[in-house]
């Protein structure tokens, strides 16, 4: 029988700076009502200079550690699954997070699956903990400030205008059935592997260099991307959500809550309907925007705060990231 792995701590961090839908309307030329109602952006947090990816991830990690009630010396592994737009290029952000929190008995590395990263990181950490009895506590931490990389005058990147900034963290424990990770699933459509990349063409009249990066995020073939995502995205979301639940020996009808990546409101509601859930069984991140692989821990935190997650509930955390990968993980919330 597999060793159980559960979530014993979680935390988030968001920069103080806020940008409202009215502010975005001025920047983008998109009417405020469209930003609010169709794109689902009431406001988003914007990273200031001090809000590096590792700083934000560290702040979130500190909250997760306090919630778990352990010392940092007990952490055996730190995994960063956050942004590649980080403090430095060609650099291990996880080791900086490890040093920041004082996890002197841990080792640290990164994984990168963009906005699909959180469920994949949870699944990978679970497998490592089940096979290695020395991994009693594993910290998953992520930070993102992709809002730096958007040119609001580039219509091709319109679907990325919701990018915000923040950090999120989960602390996992080996051998506990509390908030137990039950199953996971992921699928990638490699035909979209170069659909979103940094290009010089997307810079426009703005500053070319952002930290150590050059260019802005751009869509290389908008027509193909729209056509392909229209054909596969809903089905792939349903597929990974369903599989994550079925691997756990449950059914979709057993799911009581889903935390999912921020996206335009209509598609979010379409996904919920397709898996038999309602908006009351989820949270929509309209006051935060899309913060890459932070979205899932944020949705979990909000779901708990709003009383939408109860002890014994089967919940699912899901996401999709350019590349293009869809992922999901199921969790049995509460005492085992």
Describe this structure in words.
- The protein has eight helices and 15 strands.
- With about 325 residues, it is α+β, with helices and mostly antiparallel strands.
- The protein has two domains: about 5-175, Peroxisomal Thiolase, Chain A, domain 1 (3-Layer(aba) Sandwich), CATH 3.40.47.10; about 180-330, 3-Layer(aba) Sandwich (Peroxisomal Thiolase, Chain A, domain 1), CATH 3.40.47.
- It has a five-stranded mixed β-sheet with strand order 1-7-6-4-5, sandwiched between helices. A four-stranded mixed β-sheet has the order 8-15-14-13. Strands 2-3 form a two-stranded antiparallel ribbon.
- The protein is globular and about 55 Å long.
- The protein starts with a strand and ends with a strand.
What key attributes describe this structure?
single chain; 336 residues; alpha+beta; Peroxisomal Thiolase, Chain A, domain 1; 2 domains; four-stranded mixed β-sheet
């Amino acid at each position: 029988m597999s060793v159980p792995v559960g979530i014993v701590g979680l935390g988030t961090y968001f920069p103080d700076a806020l940008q409202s839908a009215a502010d975005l309307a001025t920047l983008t030329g998109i009417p405020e009502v469209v930003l609010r109602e169709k794109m689902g952006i009431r406001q988003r947090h914007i990273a200031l200079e001090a809000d590096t990816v590792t700083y934000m991830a560290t702040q979130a990690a500190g909250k997760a550690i306090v919630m778990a009630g352990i010392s940092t010396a007990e952490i055996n592994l730190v995994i960063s699954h956050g942004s590649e737009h980080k403090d430095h290029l060609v650099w291990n952000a996880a080791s900086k997070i490890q040093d920041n929190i004082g996890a002197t008995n841990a080792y640290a590395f990164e994984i990168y699956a963009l906005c699909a990263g959180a469920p994949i990181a949870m699944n990978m950490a679970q497998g490592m903990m089940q096979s290695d009895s020395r991994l009693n506590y594993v910290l998953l931490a992520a930070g993102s400030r992709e809002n730096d990389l958007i040119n609001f005058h580039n219509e091709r990147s319109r679907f990325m205008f919701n990018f915000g900034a923040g950090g999120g963290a989960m602390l996992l424990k080996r051998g506990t059935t509390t908030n137990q990770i039950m199953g996971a699933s992921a699928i990638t459509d490699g035909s979209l592997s170069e659909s979103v990349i940094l290009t010089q063409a997307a810079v426009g009249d703005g500053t070319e260099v952002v930290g150590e990066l050059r260019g802005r995020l751009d869509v290389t073939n908008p027509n193909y991307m729209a056509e392909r995502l229209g054909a596969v995205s809903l089905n792939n979301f349903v597929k990974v959500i369903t599989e994550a639940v079925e691997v756990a020996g449950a059914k979709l009808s057993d799911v009581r809550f889903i935390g999912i990546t921020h996206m335009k409101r209509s598609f979010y509601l379409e996904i919920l309907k397709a898996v038999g859930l309602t908006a009351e069984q989820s949270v929509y991140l309209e006051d935060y925007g899309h913060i890459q692989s932070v979205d899932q821990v944020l949705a979990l935190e909000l779901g708990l705060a709003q009383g939408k997650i109860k002890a014994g509930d089967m919940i699912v955390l899901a996401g999709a990231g350019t590349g293009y990968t869809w992922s999901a993980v199921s969790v049995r919330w509460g005492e085992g």
